[in-house]
Amino acid sequence: MAGNLVQGAVFTVMVVRAGMLRDPGFEAELAEQVQRSPRFFLNAPVVLDLKEAAEFASEAEFAEAREILRRHTLTLIGIQNAAPVQADAAAAAGLAGFAPNATQLSRPRPAEAAPALQSHAAPSVAKSRLITQPVRSGTQIYARGADLVVTAPVSPGAEIMADGNIHVYAALRGRALAGAGGDAEARIFCSRLEAELVSIAGHYLVSDQIPPEHRGLPVQIALVDDRLTIERN
Amino acid sequence: MAKVIVLTSGKGGVGKTTSAAAIASGLALRGKRTVVIDFDVGLRNLDLIMGCERRVVFDFINVINGDAKLNQALIKDKRNDNLYVFPTSQTRDKEALKRDGVERVLEELKDNFDYIVCDSPAGIEHGAITALYFADSAIIVTNPEVSSVRDSDRIIGILASKSRRAEHNLEPVQVHLLLTRYSLERVKKGEMLSVEDVKEILSIPLLGVIPESETVLKASNTGTPVVFDEESPAGRAYLDAVARFVGEQREMRFLQPGRRSIFRSLFGRA
Fold first, then answer.
1. For residues B231-256, b (16+ Cβ closer than 10 Å) or e, as one string?
2. Measured in Å, how far apart are chain B's first and last C-alpha atoms?
3. Is B261 on the interface with A (CB under 8 A)?
4. Sequence-separated (6 or more) residues with CB below 8 Å from residue B257
């Protein structure tokens, strides 16, 4: 009995935007990131995103891209969002073609000098970001690719955001946006709910919409069937 | 080493200038050489509140620009030899406050004074930021009222991120809460935020509570900082605040039911 020779499997793989390779600062930034977590990046597979990189179209360029990444212990295995001519060139260079990945975000990234190592991997090094001082009005905090833990009050007019969960071990009086990158399983936990707005993966409730019986109490907020639910903790 | 103190709030009209004048005077009364500087270029008030508006020749902007020397601009207070006023320009605007010029002037002042009190303008723009930039201590003047508290919170956040100490990763600016225009009667009626409400929202140490008092208006109009008025409860509260600032213990007086009975003045804590 042959069984299944080829089985479907799901992997999480890092994606690098092809345009970044042209940026002179990219290698230095990449080297720095790799150096911070060398084991995470060692022989890690990478897919090159060719969106908005139409000029990347020859076999030689893909070979060069593979070499650049190899210098930083990364293994280029394929491409995504390729135009037909790019797909052919990539194939000639021995790279696989991937369908656009499911968590691809189309919202604009803030202009940063940091390399676009969009880690869609469930990272083994997900560190929580810890804030121990009050988050004052007008302050914005974004825990990228991580959970956010705050052990001091969050003032009205302050905004705290995380791609992961948000925990506030004090009064939450400002805005809290968990699952900012689209993770619908993110949750918000707080010791005292007095928030102006709470949101998980884009679904939000403003203060007026929060049932009054939960105000001022320790709660857990989750997204269930596209609706925010609030439970007493 | 001279200490730079900024009186700031975010919100306008809460009592920064009144407090700057009172606190500077209070420090001088304790024998500290004190200069109080007006950072509100274009809308100067400190000279009025200090009662020296008729003696202003050169100002802060003149000195920053090198058009005058420091000793030509400083005005000695007639009531106390330790107290000097450094007025600002009324005709210019806040763009005239160049940070390196301000730094140079402050360095020169540090050689001659124990305390440099900076009266900040309202807002969170260039004028207010320049006033707080070089501070070692900040007194956050707040009214027991929601918008004032919100703005004070904002300015505390700005002190923690945009002051020189924050930018250079030094010991943070020491912030203190000064609650002004407090009315115990209104708090009891539930019309006004209490000290506890404000302390809870702002989470910074309380320096003092200044009761609402008609003597403050009188003080402004006569150009006499309210601490020089011995009848004024606000004046006494400011003196208590100054005492706490320099490390003494003082009870908060105006938070108890305000029956000004003779027994309290005989046996009450001074």
1. ebbbbbbbbbbbebbeeeeeebbbbe
2. 31
3. no
4. B184
Q: Quick check: B177 and B198 in contact, CB under 8 A? A: yes
Look up residue B158 and give its amino acid.
I
Closest CA to B225 of B6, B29, B9, B4: B29
Asked whether the beta carbons of residue B154 and residue A153 sit closer than 8 angstroms, the reply is no
- This complex has an ipTM of 0.84
Using CB atoms and an 8 Å cut-off, which of residues 175-214 of chain B contact chain A?
201, 203
User: Can you give the pLDDT at residue B268?
Assistant: 45
pLDDT tens-digit series, residues B162-185: 999 999 999 999 999 999 999 999
Determine what percent of chain B is predicted with pLDDT higher than 90.
91
Please list every residue in chain B whose beta carbon sits closer than 8 Å to the beta carbon of residue A139: 157, 161
Q: How far apart are CA B57 and CA A126, in angstroms?
A: 63
**From the candidates A133, A137, A141, A151, which should be mutated to test the interface with B, based on the most B CB atoms within 10 A?**
A137
Residues of A within 8 A of B149 (CB-CB) are: none
Among candidate residues B44, B76, B48, B49, the one with its CA nearest the CA of residue B60 = B44
B162 touches chain A (CB under 8 A): no
Task: Give the residue numbers in A contacting B (CB under 8 Å), as ranges.
Answer: 133-134, 136-139, 152-153, 155-158, 173
* CA dist., res. A49 & res. A39, Å (int): 23
Its pTM stands at 0.72
Distance CA A214, CA A231 (A): 8
- Chosen for mutation from B149, B153, B200 (greatest number of chain A CBs closer than 10 Å) is B153
Q: How far apart are CA A19 and CA A116, in angstroms?
A: 10
**Separation in Å, CA of A162 to nearest CA in chain B:** 20
